[in-house]
């Protein structure tokens, strides 16, 4: 089993009893959609309630992060002890050129035992995030035309 597959299995197990919808986003979601990209960690967007439950049950080191200039969530937690680090983000917001925008996917597709936004919405998320690596992943997903779209 690959490190990514094992980490996704840990995510699925940790969120098996989740109360609210959750998504794997970021490079792992792009990879699951067939985009050839590197995956250094697994980003999970979830509710604060479910994040609290996962953190309470996690059997490994947890690092709580601070908000940045571009991204913030409450909490932002990096879970150690899986084959890849797992990053939990509840209430994720991204700062565009004018204001903070909530990141709330609308679509939800099951792939490899986890949930991800559908391909077009994931590409729009990457475009919103706006970093060079995100724009490259949006292009890999074939959605360069969605760069001004909303998420």
> Proportion of β residues?
15-25%
Determine the CATH topology: Beta Polymerase, domain 2
Please state how the strands of the largest beta sheet are arranged side by side.
1-2-6-5-3
CATH architecture: 2-Layer Sandwich
What gap, in angstroms, lies between the N and C termini? 33 Å
Percent helix, as a range, is: 25-40%
Radius of gyration: 14 Å
**Text of the CATH class:** Alpha Beta
- Tally of DSSP β-strands: 10
Low-confidence stretches: 144-151
Largest sheet: 5 strands, mixed
Characterization of this structure:
There is one protein chain. The strands form 3 sheets. Strands 1-2-6-5-3 form a 5-stranded mixed sheet. A 3-stranded antiparallel sheet has the order 4-7-8, with no helix packed on it. The protein is globular. The longest helix has 12 residues, at 3-14. Helix 4 (119-129) packs antiparallel against helix 5 (132-140). It has helices spanning 3-14, 26-32, 48-57, 119-129, 132-140; strands spanning 23-25, 42-46, 62-64, 71-72, 76-79, 86-90, 93-95, 100-102, 109-111, 114-116. It has 151 residues and is of the alpha+beta class. It has one domain: Beta Polymerase, domain 2, CATH 3.30.460. Residues 144-151 have low confidence and may be disordered. It has 5 helices and 10 strands; from the N terminus they run αβαβαββββββββαα.
